[in-house]
UniProtKB/TrEMBL annotation:
Domain of life: Bacteria
Organism (species): Lactobacillus delbrueckii subsp. lactis
Lineage, uppermost ranks: Bacteria, Bacillati, Bacillota, Bacilli, Lactobacillales
One Pfam family this sequence matches: tRNA-synt_2
Domain Aminoacyl-transfer RNA synthetases class-II family profile: 1-221
Protein name, per record: Asparagine--tRNA ligase
Length: 231
């Protein structure tokens, strides 16, 4: 699907809008590694097409095209959450295992790469219940975020989904959520499901990175923010 998405949180940063556009594929019979392959091919194709057809427009914006070209080549690093934590700690950052990355953390990590990169296998406690647990470490999920270079942070996120009814039900309980609120979602598994994965790409965030904009509001004609355009 591709359409507007609404964010019910009071995030006021250069990367957040209360209404944004997102592309969301869900792929049947696809596991985590295959999903990461698809995400890499998709994003590298998008950047390649922009470089091929929009060089003049990017030059007007003063965009350094050499900074974008590696992204069109693919070969994105798959950095585990554990290794990302070690990188921050070795640099003297006050960050412990189980914390979620803030904008400064993502900016620091992105300076180590010349193209987008994945951070994979986040802790269960900081991600949604519907993801499949990592069989090699059940404290983590089979999930990943794509981080853009140059400090632009997360632009895509996805996971392999939990397809088993009983396991999903248990994970809803573990998250402290009301099962009745998710009865319709559980029905999707109750009557049969298949292994599947999915991801979402924030349209404005990708545009902001490609065009090197200062704020995602510059990537949309009528930005809806927490103090602008109600509701």
């Amino acid at each position: 699907t591709f359409g507007p998405t609404f964010r019910a949180e009071a995030s006021k940063t250069r990367r957040h809008l209360t209404e944004f556009w997102m592309m969301e594929p869900e792929m049947a019979w696809m596991h985590q590694d295959e999903s990461l392959d698809l995400q890499e091919r998709f994003l590298s194709y998008v950047v390649g097409q922009v470089l091929e057809h929009c060089e003049y427009e990017l030059s007007i914006l003063g965009r350094d095209l050499d900074k974008l070209r590696p992204a069109a080549e693919g070969n994105y690093t798959r950095l585990s959450y554990d290794d990302a934590v070690k990188m921050l700690q070795e640099a003297g950052k006050d960050f412990k295992w189980g914390d979620d990355f803030g904008a400064p953390d993502e900016a620091f990590l992105s300076e180590r790469f010349d193209r987008p990169f994945f951070i994979v296998n986040y802790p269960v406690a900081i991600k949604p219940f519907y993801m499949k647990k990592n069989p090699e470490n059940p404290l983590t999920y089979l999930c990943a975020d794509v981080e853009a270079p140059e400090g632009y942070g997360e632009i895509m996120g996805g996971s392999e989904r939990e397809a088993d009814y009983d396991t999903l039900k248990a994970q809803i309980k573990e998250a402290g959520l009301n099962l009745d609120d998710y009865s319709w979602y559980l029905d999707l598994r109750k009557y049969g499901s298949v292994p599947h994965s999915g991801f979402g790409m924030g349209f404005e965030r990708v545009i902001a990175w490609i065009c090197k904009l200062d704020h995602v509001r510059e990537a949309v004609p009528f930005p809806r923010m927490i103090n602008r355009m109600q509701p």
